[in-house]
Amino acid sequence: MEIENLRLEVLIDREKIAKRVKELAEEISKDFENEDPLMIGILNGAFIFMADLVREMKVPVEVEFIRVKSYCGTNTTGCVEVLLDVPECVKGKNVVIVEDIVDTGITMNYLLNRVKNKGAKSVKVCALLDKPSRRIVDIKPDYVGFEIPDYFVVGYGLDYNGKYRELPDICVVKN
Ligand code: 5GP
């Protein structure tokens, strides 16, 4: 597939994503059987994953969002800009942070600390994708959809300079 001169190759198709999202929701639901979680999606990248994940949950959930910016093109900027901060309602709650992808770990490390500092009772991380080979900060998500190699991916919410979020499959950008 070629869009605007970028060559895209499907890495994980929509059927595989849907199956794995269901499994993740079942696993999280089991772990939170007696303590309904507050699920916090990280905008913009996690908006589709979050919407699919919460609809597969078997326990009641609360939903909030945080918005951060940490990337420009395919390069990490190494800094995190908070555009919509952690809501006050995290105080005393069992939080599950829902992220599209953990790459260097810088963003997740920052968010984990920020949510903990706001008084969350517990904090777990659910990442659709994990690129452990790129890690700079030692972060291990509690729930991972797919571990992937050091590829830059788009689709299913993930963008390249604001584009391709609407693609239903997760695709690799080829040069
Ligand atoms: P980290 O702070 O872990 O390096 O990066 C986290 C953020 O970088 C993710 O939330 C995501 O927005 C962005 N990111 C990292 N890898 C990729 C990738 O392969 N594709 C896209 N579209 N974004 C990525």
Describe this structure in words.
By secondary structure, the chain is of the alpha/beta class. It has a single domain, classed as Rossmann fold, CATH 3.40.50. The protein is built from three helices and ten strands; from the N terminus they run ββαβαβββαββββ. The strands form two sheets. A six-stranded mixed beta sheet has the order 5-4-3-6-7-8, sandwiched between helices. The protein has a four-stranded antiparallel beta sheet with strand order 1-2-10-9. Strand 6, helix 3 and strand 7 form a beta-alpha-beta unit. It is globular. The relative contact order is 0.21. The model has no long low-confidence stretch (mean pLDDT 92). The chain binds guanosine-5'-monophosphate. Guanosine-5'-monophosphate binds next to strand 4, strand 6, helix 3 and strand 9.
Which key phrases capture this entry?
single chain, 175 residues, alpha/beta, Rossmann fold, 3 helices, binds guanosine-5'-monophosphate
Q: Tell me what the CATH architecture is.
A: 3-Layer(aba) Sandwich
Q: Given the structure, what is the number of helices?
A: 3
Identify the strand order in the major beta sheet: 5-4-3-6-7-8
Biggest sheet features: 6 strands, mixed
Q: What is the domain tally?
A: 1
- Distance between the ends: 13 Å
**On the 0-100 scale, what is the average pLDDT?**
92
Order of helices and strands: EEHEHEEEHEEEE
Shape: globular
Question: How many DSSP E strands?
Answer: 10
Radius of gyration: 16 Å
Cofactors, ions, other ligands: guanosine-5'-monophosphate
Structural class: alpha/beta
In the CATH scheme, the class would be Alpha Beta
Question: What ranges have pLDDT less than 50 throughout 5 or more consecutive residues?
Answer: none
Q: Give the percentage of residues in beta strands.
A: 35-45%
CATH topology: Rossmann fold
- Report the helical percentage: 10-25%
